[in-house]
């Protein structure tokens, strides 16, 4: 595991002081348990930037409450499989990370998740951006609490590579992006880093393209399970645009061997071996941990996804994960202790400060001005504006759709990127599986 590089500068103290006032209403949230009723196990994803902060919070909580909370981490894809087989069994954790939305809804329907509604005060719930808290809500009940910053997907780029290729500004339009791909490729550099060994990284391209081409309503039909929703001109157009990128060599020739969890795209981008990367906002924190000199030198650029000529989607729309969430399992032997840990940890000023220090933007309403006086203000302000100003925030499809549909979609998408499936074949497969 790479060592976390901390940026807890003096400015963070000022930010935390103000945020402490914002978060003070959270202090009265439910759960009077002391956390001493037994051990509590927390499952989350492996993350070089975030895990040390989580461990610090757990250590501090254990010392305060004389509790026994432990953290267990997993890589992304193995974690998803582990949850499927463990929730509801004797091997299940007390607290587990999830992405909210359709994925969480399936676990709720199966009776694996505890209802937190009665343990969270109205003041606490009102602190969060509504679109973010909604991701942890099912049928009006809260089953998950935001535990990270907001996570829209953005386009990151290497400023040195752009300069070398004669590119003056990040691409604002699809045509400009294609031109930039050609310019970067001409320099012998991979235009766009892509971890093709993990299809969820490829999904971000389809999510944004369909939104820009057909608007959010195109995916809403798919999410609702409407007949023929995949057989949509906007879907086929978006898939064709992806195929065009692959044919242009936008992702290089060996992208299917690159692994995101192993830091493959971070290395390509920070070392100047790739020009761009489409990734969730957590990329800043990941890059800060993996290549601090690159980030601190101001070489990492970031921008919104390009517009598409003739598309009906609002250019301000975003896709991604409103946040990552923590939920309590219904079968936990120490449910009160698990809830106590959440309610006495996630809203603490120290935890909020830690999130800010690695570029995570807390999902708290009305803090734009406060962010400008804190750490990494250019980036945190950019991310906050993306979410606060977005007409729609479409959740990542592999979390919004039911698990079976998601598995098939990701498998087919990987085939499309690897030129083993055409756009028409993709659409036919998805509609036939309905």
Q: TL;DR?
A:
By secondary structure, the chain is α/β, with parallel strands linked by helices. The chain is 46% helix and 13% strand.
Descriptive report:
This protein is of the alpha/beta class. It folds into 2 domains: 10-150 and 322-388, 3-Layer(aba) Sandwich (D-Maltodextrin-Binding Protein, domain 2), CATH 3.40.190; 152-319 and 402-432, Periplasmic binding protein-like II (D-Maltodextrin-Binding Protein, domain 2, 3-Layer(aba) Sandwich), CATH 3.40.190.10. Helix content is 46%, strand content 13%. The chain contains 21 helices and 13 strands. The protein has helices at 10-23, 51-65, 76-86, 101-109, 122-126, 130-133, 159-164, 174-186, 199-214, 216-223, 233-248, 264-270, 283-290, 292-296, 335-343, 349-357, 368-371, 377-388, 397-400, 403-417, 423-432; strands at residues 40-45, 69-74, 95-98, 137-138, 141-142, 145-146, 151-158, 190-192, 274-280, 300-303, 318-321, 325-328, 393-395. Strands 7, 8, 9, 10, 11 and 13 form a 6-stranded mixed β-sheet that branches. Strands 2-1-3-12-6 form a 5-stranded mixed β-sheet. It has a two-stranded antiparallel sheet with strand order 4-5. β1 (40-45), α2 and β2 form a beta-alpha-beta unit. α9 (199-214) crosses α11 (233-248). The longest helix has 16 residues, at 199-214. The chain is globular. The protein starts with 9 loop residues before the first helix and ends with a helix.
